[in-house]
From TrEMBL:
<keyword id="KW-0812">Transmembrane</keyword>
<keyword id="KW-0597">Phosphoprotein</keyword>
<feature type="transmembrane region" description="Helical">
    <location>
        <begin position="25"/>
        <end position="49"/>
    </location>
</feature>
<dbReference type="GO" id="GO:0005886">
    <property type="term" value="C:plasma membrane"/>
</dbReference>
<dbReference type="InterPro" id="IPR036890">
    <property type="entry name" value="HATPase_C_sf"/>
</dbReference>
<keyword id="KW-1133">Transmembrane helix</keyword>
<dbReference type="GO" id="GO:0000155">
    <property type="term" value="F:phosphorelay sensor kinase activity"/>
</dbReference>
<keyword id="KW-1003">Cell membrane</keyword>
<keyword id="KW-0472">Membrane</keyword>
<keyword id="KW-0418">Kinase</keyword>
<keyword id="KW-0547">Nucleotide-binding</keyword>
<dbReference type="InterPro" id="IPR050640">
    <property type="entry name" value="Bact_2-comp_sensor_kinase"/>
</dbReference>
<protein>
    <submittedName>
        <fullName>Sensor histidine kinase</fullName>
    </submittedName>
</protein>
<keyword id="KW-0902">Two-component regulatory system</keyword>
<dbReference type="GO" id="GO:0005524">
    <property type="term" value="F:ATP binding"/>
</dbReference>
<feature type="domain" description="Histidine kinase/HSP90-like ATPase">
    <location>
        <begin position="485"/>
        <end position="599"/>
    </location>
</feature>
<dbReference type="InterPro" id="IPR010559">
    <property type="entry name" value="Sig_transdc_His_kin_internal"/>
</dbReference>
Length: 605
């Protein structure tokens, strides 16, 4: 079933292509397929290349954001491990374990010195933040288990007071982490704090709560974790709390726009499309929000895609132009070939084609010229054969006419002798001898004057036979006597009128021979008042084509002579000439003989 459908479709396509001209094949078959191919290429570039590029850029951007988040987390991991040297030092543990409320000034002073020393003289064995230029620690504070601010590097009382308030506010959250770091953004002071709960370092007493450690940090921590980035970059950053509070904004967007982007994950602003890639941070309730400007991020990809599409369009235009040029060249050569063939009206060297090109058209030219040479040779051979055949047919027709007339004449003389009219018979024999001498020795083409003399010799014999029953009028203008006519043209027609038109009738026989002419032809008229000719014979003779073999026997006995005359005239002059038979208005026959105007001097033509 499928094979049959495919076969039918193939046949329909082939039939459709066969009905196309070269131009239609180029513009309806080749060009659409070419354009479709380029459309598929462009579609593939769009779907494969562009999506791949977008995925690659999105992945790279996400990795960059994750690296920034790892930098931030890594800093506080370092800070976490670095603070172990404070909270688990022997002095710190001893002072906090005294559980004296309030602590003595000496103990406070000693612990404060430790904090200052830690801030400004960090151990060379461990650096808190190796990727920052300056120490980001602003103040360090320790509170004992009783809630007293045991030691602090803070100078201002307002800061000390705020630190003590935060210890009380966040104590439960900090102790819930059991010594893990807790990061907090203080909206009131716009400061970042790092907290740790301090526990006894003795294995048997690890659950003993000793106090809290607080480190106030510079906001430079946010900038250091992000590192340098250009404001014109496609990705910018913003630190946000999980509640949507903007902590530090490093983007060109306002805080309100950042909050909207954080809440909706997408934002369109000033013809730019943004989307957020948020990474939760390890410490506290912070989120690093990567703000990605899609318009800038994919601008290069779109620009490259436009360049590719422009190149594809240019290539389509170039190939289309090449196809049109090739069509015009090929079509021009075909038109040159066709014009040459159309303008050729004869065979010979003038009909040969010389296009002066190489390739297939040169081969076509050679084949065509070779064919013309062969056709010319065959035409010459056929023409020679046709002339030979025509001469043979003419000779055969003359052989038919002469015995036929001789038979009729001898029959007439025999009648005279039977009637004991010896003088008339003798005169008839003299006229017959002149008649035969003309028929045998004269050229096949004679002047109209000689043909009329030949007719008069024949009529002399017939008038002896028919006496007053035969009346003949010959009225031919003298200026037509010099024009030529095949011999034995008029006499057989008159003989046919006498024998077949009056054979069974005793009425008077009237025959008129007249002539006229136009610019190119001589027209002879033979009219009689006989019994006429049947429509069937008239139709066959009027439409006779001598190139078609027709059997004269099918014409009827009184049509043989007429058929012979028609054949001779048309073999000699062509089918535009010959005899045309009509019926008279009342009775009898009207025969028109049309021959070309040729003078006696043109007999050789």
């Amino acid at each position: 079933m499928i094979r049959s459908i495919m076969k039918t479709a193939k046949e329909k396509i082939n039939n459709l292509l066969k009905s196309f001209s070269i131009k239609q094949l180029y513009f309806a078959a080749v060009l659409p397929l070419l354009i479709l191919g380029y459309i598929l290429i462009a579609f593939s570039v769009w779907n494969v290349y562009l999506h791949q590029m977008k995925n690659t850029l999105a992945l790279e951007t996400q990795n960059a954001i994750m690296n920034k988040a790892d930098n931030f987390n890594g800093y506080f991991d370092s800070l976490y491990y670095a603070t172990d040297s404070i909270i688990y030092s022997d002095i710190t543990q001893q002072l906090l374990q005294k559980n004296v409320t309030p602590p003595s000034p000496d103990d406070q002073s000693l612990l404060t010195d430790i904090l200052y020393n830690y801030m400004y003289h960090s151990s060379s064995s461990y650096v808190i933040n190796s990727w920052t230029i300056n120490n980001p620690i602003v103040t360090l504070s320790i509170q004992n288990a009783a809630g007293d601010l045991y030691a602090t590097s803070a100078i201002y009382n307002t800061e000390k007071k705020r630190t003590n308030e935060l210890f009380g506010l966040l104590k439960d959250n900090i102790t819930a982490l059991h010594g893990q770091g807790y990061l907090f953004w203080d909206i009131q002071s716009r400061s970042l704090y790092f907290f740790r709960a301090i526990y006894n370092n003795q294995i048997s007493q690890t659950d003993q709560f000793l106090g809290l450690l607080s480190i106030r940090l510079s906001s430079r921590v946010f900038a250091d974790s992000i590192g340098y980035h250009s404001s014109s970059s496609s990705t910018s950053y913003c630190f946000v709390t999980t509640e949507g509070e903007i902590v530090s904004n490093f983007s060109l967007l306002s805080d309100s726009d950042c909050q909207e982007l954080f809440n909706n994950n997408r934002l369109t602003l000033h013809a730019y499309n943004y989307h957020a890639n948020s990474q939760e941070l390890k410490y506290g309730n912070f989120v690093l929000m990567g703000i990605i400007n899609d318009s800038k991020l994919y601008a290069g990809s779109y620009r490259l895609l436009r360049h590719l599409l422009i190149l594809i369009s240019i290539s389509v235009i170039l190939i289309t132009g090449s196809i049109i040029l090739a069509y015009r060249v090929i079509s021009g050569r075909f038109n040159q070939f066709i014009r040459k063939i159309s303008s050729t009206d004869s065979l010979g060297n003038a009909a040969l084609i010389h296009m002066n090109v190489k390739g297939e058209f040169e081969e076509l030219e050679n084949v065509y010229n070779s064919m013309l040479v062969r056709v010319s040779q065959l035409t010459s051979s056929l023409h020679a054969q046709e002339l030979a055949t025509k001469d043979a047919e003419l000779a055969s027709l003359y052989a038919q006419i002469n015995p036929h007339f001789l038979y009729n004449t001898l029959d007439c003389i025999n009648g005279l002798i039977s009637l004991q009219k010896s003088s008339e018979a003798q005169a008839s024999i003299v006229s017959l001898s002149k008649f035969l001498r003309f028929a045998i020795k004269a050229d096949n083409i004679v002047s109209l004057q000689k043909e009329l003399e030949y007719v008069r010799n024949y009529l002399f014999i017939e008038k002896i036979r028919y006496q007053n029953r035969l009346l003949v009028l010959i009225d031919v203008p003298e200026e037509l006597n010099s024009y030529t006519i095949p011999k034995l043209t008029l006499q057989p027609l008159i003989e046919n009128a006498i024998i077949h038109g009056f054979n069974d009738s005793f009425k008077e026989m009237l025959i008129a021979v007249t002539a006229a002419s136009d610019d190119s032809s001589v027209i002879l008229h033979i009219k009689d008042n006989g019994c006429g000719i049947s429509e069937e014979i008239i139709d066959k003779i009027n439409h006779l084509d001598p190139s078609i073999d027709m059997d004269d026997k099918n014409t009827g006995c009184n049509g043989i002579g007429l058929m012979n005359i028609q054949k001779r005239l048309r073999l000699t002059y062509g089918n535009n000439y010959g005899i045309s038979i009509q019926k008279n208005f009342k009775d009898g026959t009207h025969i028109l003989i049309c021959i070309p105007k040729k003078q006696s001097g043109d007999m050789s033509n």
